[in-house]
Design a protein that fits this description.
Strand content: 15-25%
Largest sheet: 8 strands, parallel, barrel
Strand order of the largest sheet: 1-2-3-4-5-6-7-8
Structural class: alpha/beta
Radius of gyration: 17 Å
Helix content: 25-40%
Number of strands: 8
Order of helices and strands: EHEHEHEHHEHHEHEHEH
Bound molecules: phosphoenolpyruvate
Amino acid sequence: MRRKIVAGNWKMNGSKDLVQQLVGSVRSEAESLDNGVEVVIIPPAIYVSDVVARSGNRLMVGVQNVGQWSSGAYTGEIAAGMAKDQGCSYALVGHSERRQLFGETDDEVAAKVESLVASGLTAVVCVGETLEQREAGRAEAVVASQVKAALDNVVAGQWDRIVVAYEPVWAIGTGKTATAEDAQAMHASIRQVLAEIGAPAESISLLYGGSVKADNAAALFAEPDIDGGLIGGASLKADDFVSICQAMPASTNS
Ligand code: PEP
């Protein structure tokens, strides 16, 4: 059965005050959810231990990025094993902001995925096309190539630690969301790519990200190949984030 996941990516936002205000109320609302959704908070790494301390059994915690190495002279980086050591169970990898602003390449993404799954974390592998690529009719090809490159080093026995997040670059932080139909079509295409590379496609959770809000989440989550969401801006307000978690239907997609 595929995991249903709603993950909040705080990006470079937050403070100790926000942790204090938001995590407790998300946690108590999450405790009353009966739709089986896994709720994940992904704060800046410096706040991970503060979030973990308030997360209880119901919330999962993640990091937004890791270095691909296990330790060493890499000033400013954190390793997958360190995130695990601090109580994280998830990590984003290949977010479009890292690809675009920090020049992260497909090879680096693949090395980070390898390091994450070897450390026992679930890697949320972010893929997505730009507006230019979509308008040129290349969206599916671009996303397929990102998925194949990112998962190149994953071996049998590690697939249960892989989640793919489809995040069209033109929808992130812009208020523009893919229609539920377009998002579903891309998710179905990703699932086909996963099958082609020998992954257990039907058991891998696929998330949609890109301006998901309380008022569009239900339509997205109702699609058969959309198993949850990666939420940026709307994860910074407890009420909005909880409403998105509540929008997950109780029935399973698989
Ligand atoms: C994201 O940061 O992954 C994201 C989807 O952001 P937003 O929801 O703000 O578009």
